[in-house]
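I am still learning, so would you mind making up any protein sequence you like and the tokens describing how it folds?
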Amino acid sequence: MDFYDGVLWVCLVEVLSGKRLTGTCKKPRMRIQKIQNMAVVLEFLKTEGFVVDRWLSAGDLLDCNLKILLGLLWTLILRYQVNGGKPSNSTKTELLEFVREKLPQHNISAFHNWKVAYLYDLVEAIEPGCLPTQPESESEACKSAMEVANTLMEIPMLLDPEDMIESCDELSAMLYISYFRDYERQLQTRIALKAGNTKSANKYH
């Protein structure tokens, strides 16, 4: 599947933002209808605070300029997944604070040298006791951590274990870790709600 007619762009932005775009054509046949879809997407992004008109046009999307398409995809992922939907220039710092808090023993200072040991210990720190205590190898540790994160925390396996070990770049690491941050927040919210409900119930006994 590709993005040449704007329909997938519309769907992607709606899913990521949780908002509905209006004025689009679901089955565009003519070029002007396809451009209209792209224009709706770009106009919506501007209302969300994206500065895209300096480097991106509806024509660029329609012509499938790969470099620009990938740039826009990462921009959307950065905002809606890594930043949690908020415009922010401090995402990397906030994610580093999160992993440092969970993994003080590792003294992590950057994401470009993310290691399997960090991932394994991060999963264990969030859900203690969910992993085997003595994995046989780095590969086994990585596979176990990613599989448990996927099944227990519903965190997608964005990378193969081999890629995590051999070639995990900074952006991929940030994106993957953002799912752990979100899970931790949801977990703490559930714990707080449960504690509040228990406290309320105890008042009447």
